[in-house]
């Protein structure tokens, strides 16, 4: 019998000491993680967490995924969700062909670079399925391009304000000024992470990865009162298990309900597995 493990990460804030005084306050990310953990538990997954704000450190997330890789074998599945800010650091190992920037998850004590995440995926055995939901900005491929900077006019249209602090409470993106300050201060840490990983190494993922993201690479993900817009829409489509379609069908139905400036992406990586996207979500 196949095994299903799930890990759920949600951050409504980060440690200001780690982010140049920025606390990254959001409203609904922890609830996203709690709701996804409940859904996974109802589907029979062995749930870790949820890992909420102070518990969602880089060390804890890394150790949790390494432990999952040690337990899962061919035919098993990992369900991994992240809800929080997205960020970027300069790409040093040339695995980004576009903007030369690596995407990050903004964890409590530091950013987890996409290179690290894919290296962790590389620890999973061939035949393992990894289903990833990332409700964060610039998450179209969990990691592959910096969005265009929104103009004051666009910010005003989208959020009725051009105040960066107010916008920061409504979208899940680390402000560029904070990204720059954190990278200048902690450059040795982030450069070392990338310098020990090559593009060739990152391609060695034997598991099959399927991601449904909160938005495209050049878009932002909206926060909310109860859930983030993407997570809330997913729950609406899922309807407590009444949805009977595939992963691809789930993605299509979510996209239909989302605004045109936030379009969830479906992305596959690792070992080819065409049947994966046709399976029913939350099925072990």
UniProtKB/TrEMBL annotation:
Domain called Peptidase C14 caspase: residue spans: 17-268
- The highest taxon in the source lineage is Bacteria
Identify the PANTHER family for this entry.
METACASPASE-1, METACASPASE-4
State the protein's name.
Answer: Caspase family protein
Q: Which organism is it from?
A: Streptomyces rhizosphaericus
